[in-house]
Task: structure prediction
Amino acid sequence: MRYINFEVMIIAFVALSFLWTLFKIIRVRMLGVEVNAFITRLEEHETTDADGIPSEYYEVYVRYQTKDGRTVNTSLANSTAFLNVGDLVRIKYIPGQEDYPVLA
Result:
């Protein structure tokens, strides 16, 4: 019985983390300011699933200028698209939370 409670807590934590991230992405897409950004770097990462099968993903870094003229260098929150260094993309960000942009 004790193991079930621990497993339920882990599942609930993962589910809440996923929902929080999804909420943040949807919020930025709905309320965000849209600007151009340049892909400055791709960082390759490898993960292993529960069966021990490895998979790779790329963290995409962008540089963009906010509407008030500040330059921001950060990674994209939703980098599922196939992008290359030097590509120009449209992103959205929330003013005051510029380190969490998403693809527009």
Notes: The mean pLDDT is 85. The chain is about 30% helix and 45% strand. Residues 2-31 form the longest helix (30 residues).
